[in-house]
Amino acid sequence: MAIRAGIVGGTGYTGVELLRLLAAHPGVDLAVITSRGKAGVAVSEVFPNLRGHVDQPFVEPDEAGLGECDVVFFATPNGTAMEMAPALLEQGVRVIDLGADFRIRDLELWSRWYGMTHHCPAVAAEAVYGLPERHREAIRAARLVANPGCYPTAVQLGLIPLLEAGLVDTRHVVADAKSGASGAGRQPRQHTLLCEAGENFHAYGAGGHRHLPEIRQGLEEAAGGEVGLVFVPHLLPMIRGIHATLYAPLRDPAVDLQAVFETRYADEPFVDVLPPGSHPETRSVRGSNMVRIAVHRPEDSDMALVLAVEDNLVKGAAGQAVQNMNLMFARPETEGLLAPAVLP
Ligand SMILES: NC(=O)C1=CN([C@@H]2O[C@H](COP(=O)(O)OP(=O)(O)OC[C@H]3O[C@@H](n4cnc5c(N)ncnc54)[C@H](OP(=O)(O)O)[C@@H]3O)[C@@H](O)[C@H]2O)C=CC1
Ligand SMILES: CC(=O)N[C@@H](CCC(=O)OP(=O)(O)O)C(=O)O
């Protein structure tokens, strides 16, 4: 039987990416797609790429029959899922939140970074962090999955092989990451206008970004202890893609880094460890659920240097959410996610 899926926030960038992936998924029936602003309008009228694939209308989130779904994805701003998820869970609906409401276990820390009081702490306590490469078995059984953020996915996948194996001096880890402008969402904002973001490049959040506690939580779990992390995001003048350059001081510079990464990810369908000396490009993953990783030990340095690329809207959001849904509903993990990247 097909999985009846609902999407809250179908008019945003992660929402339309979910629609693109789920419309082509053989095991999914797109039952409910919500928008407050476009209720009654056909999805394909708003998104012409979906004409002939998703022609049904958007509906209001409150009259949406979301309770009739098997799974509901929240592709909404932070703070929305925590309002609506408890009632859905009570009705037996499984929930995948693409936002950050359930990602951080320490809710005081969450409140400090997100500027809100958590609406449902008891529900938050049962959420499973949806990074399959770390929590596959727990995701299969989860009622509520906290889909990781876009930067946290790339940074964690780039560093966990080193941290799990205890190879790094964890006091001084640096994540220098760059994102395309779709990472900021579809709401118009001055800094993502073409004339502001085009022909321009800058860091932001250098003094502290809300992904810092999320990344640190995942890295500390992998390392089994504290990790001193500096994380600096940058806005790239392109639409999709994240490139993370990760610096980790090695305890033993003689370790075979290539073998460590190849062994750790040998069975991972969506992590590609590139041959030695490679420099992954964001366009090699554009539109695909793959993360590509290269590991270097630069000349005369005791650092491991990891380069990781992903599509922020796919493995960084909607693709990972579909991967999690596949696990939760005992479907093949890669179902609907194997299309190669779009190039050029
Ligand atoms: N963009 C990215 O690369 C990534 C984003 N994320 C996270 O995913 C979530 C969605 O991001 P993104 O798609 O970029 O955001 P957008 O701003 O592009 O879209 C947000 C969507 O949510 C809907 N919405 C807004 N407020 C509410 C509400 N109160 N109730 C119901 N629906 C609402 C909007 O539709 P309408 O107003 O019509 O109802 C719209 O469809 C965010 O939490 C974001 O942080 C995670 C990883 C990557
Ligand atoms: C380029 C850009 O602006 N990116 C966003 C990250 C988007 C995201 O994934 O954030 P959450 O899911 O954690 O809200 C930012 O830095 O705020």
From TrEMBL:
Keywords, alphabetical: Amino-acid biosynthesis, Arginine biosynthesis, Cytoplasm, NADP, Oxidoreductase
Catalytic activity, as annotated: N-acetyl-L-glutamate 5-semialdehyde + phosphate + NADP(+) = N-acetyl-L-glutamyl 5-phosphate + NADPH + H(+)
Name of the protein this chain belongs to: N-acetyl-gamma-glutamyl-phosphate reductase
Subcellular location: Cytoplasm
Family statement: Belongs to the NAGSA dehydrogenase family. Type 1 subfamily.
Domain Semialdehyde dehydrogenase NAD-binding: 4-142
Cited function: Catalyzes the NADPH-dependent reduction of N-acetyl-5-glutamyl phosphate to yield N-acetyl-L-glutamate 5-semialdehyde.
Taxonomic superkingdom: Bacteria
PANTHER family noted in UniProt: N-ACETYL-GAMMA-GLUTAMYL-PHOSPHATE REDUCTASE, CHLOROPLASTIC-RELATED, N-ACETYL-GAMMA-GLUTAMYL-PHOSPHATE REDUCTASE, CHLOROPLASTIC-RELATED-RELATED
MF annotations from Gene Ontology: N-acetyl-gamma-glutamyl-phosphate reductase activity
Naturally occurring in which organism (per UniProt): Spiribacter pallidus
